[in-house]
Amino acid sequence: MNLLAIETATEACSVALIHGDEVIARSELAPRRHAERVLPMADELLAEAGLARQALDAIAVGRGPGAFTGVRLAVSLAQGMALASARPSSARTSSRVKPRSRPRRMKRRRCSCAGP
Predict the structure, then answer these.
(1) What are the pLDDT digits (tens) for 35-74?
(2) pTM of the entire predicted model
(3) How far apart are the first and last CA of the chain?
(4) Nearest to 105 by CA among 60, 49, 42
(5) How high does pLDDT run on average in the chain?
(6) What's the average model confidence in pLDDT over 101-111?
(7) Alpha-carbon torsion 30, 92, 89, 20, what sign?
(8) What is the 3-state secondary structure (H, E, C) of the chain?
(9) Is the bond preceding residue 88 a cis peptide, omega within 30 degrees?
(10) Would you place residue 89 in the very low, low, confident or very high pLDDT band (cuts 50, 70, 90)?
């Protein structure tokens, strides 16, 4: 599975890519610069893994807790990328996501930004 995860709810801007059994991640403190950093970070991860955006199986975002503007940015990016590539997206509560956890297989094929 190729899953791109975006987290922008705090001052840290983070993007991770699960590519098979490998996890590649970028994170940096970027207060008020998430909008300019998140897509280049995602592109760097995809290039490092040798993947195109169309090779993604799903896109996940952290839905907080955190700054509403940051959550809105991540959700907007995920929705746009998911709709453009006909891939599912999913939102998860940031504090419930465990680092390096394996993603559950997503059954929905529509873009959804409401997680359990």
Answers:
(1) 999 999 999 999 999 999 999 998 988 888 888 899 999 9
(2) 0.76
(3) 21
(4) 60
(5) 80
(6) 38
(7) positive
(8) CEEEEEECCCCEEEEEEEECCEEEEEEEECCCCHHHHHHHHHHHHHHHHCCCHHHCCEEEEECCCCCHHHHHHHHHHHHHHHHHHCCCEEEECHHHCCCCCCCCCCCCCCECCCCC
(9) no
(10) confident
* Dihedral pair phi/psi, residue 35, rounded to 5°: -60, -35
Tokens of 53: 């955006």
Give yes or no for a contact between 66 and 9, defined as CB atoms under 8 angstroms apart: yes
Nearest to 8 by CA among 66, 57, 60: 66
pLDDT bracket for residue 111 (50, 70, 90): very low
Distance (Å) of CA 28 to CA 8, 13, 47, 93 = 10, 5, 18, 20
Residue whose tokens read 């509403």? 68
Q: Cβ contacts of residue 96 below 8 Å, gap of 6+?
A: none
Identify which of 105, 94, 1 has the alpha carbon closest to the alpha carbon of residue 56. Answer: 1
